[in-house]
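Below is our example:

___
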Amino acid sequence: MEPVVIEEYNPEWPKMFENEKQRINALSENVSVEHIGSTSVEGACAKPIIDILVGVKKLEAAAELIKKLQTLDYEYIPEFEKEIPDRRYLQRTGFHIHIAKKRWKILEFPHFVQRLPACTSIQSSSVL
């Protein structure tokens, strides 16, 4: 197992997300694309991987979206469905995509954490 690398906050992370969001939105008009995970929290240390939640109205719509995302060099990892059956997971270097039926509570996470200074002041470590 490779070590987990945690980096200081990188102000490029939101820009990287926005660029990827545009690429994803160009594939489908019927999705919501949100930046989730620790890279979405301004000032927080994080693994340098942009986590993206793509919300669909029905999970059945994910199959067609997965095919389209594969044209953007994303690899579909169906094995993760054994652990989390209501999500579809894809990855490419520097990005992870989670496709799920639209649920808004998870989107409150970055906004909640940003209000807690102790959460964003965690010291970074090169390896955990």
